Amino acid sequence: IPLRIAVCRWPLLGALLVRGMNxxxxxxxxxxxxxxxxxxxxAGFLAxxxxxxxxxxxxxxxxxxxMDGRHPSMGALVGIEHSLAGLADxxxxxxxxxxxxxxxxxxxxxxxxxxxxxxAHYFPGAGHYVLEDALDAIRPLVSRFLDRxxxxxx
Length: 154
Hints:
The protein has 154 residues and is mainly alpha-helical. It is 51% helix and 6% strand.
């Protein structure tokens, strides 16, 4: 886990950063993209998290990232991992931001290994919010994928 996320898990400081200062969501509007978000787009990402009370789920999410086998969520995570094989025969489009600071190329390779038949596209200049960085390239891919798989595209 990157230090910038680990800090959000620290007792007291994590709550102050995540719930008090909206540090997790606000930082993501800068760190999860390679191209600067337009102010209106960033405001849209932050809109659901306007107060201490609104940020309780974000703080719980960060604290719920299992770091070892003793974590209460580890069993559920392992169960999900074992269930992924059930998706292998489904049509799948993977659009991956190569500049993701958290889910790096190791994770991308895991997805390719688990889903070798997936249509995969790697965007080296995109971050975690891949659609924010590469929308113009991804939009036609999604349209063609939906048309090919379901006979309809928006």
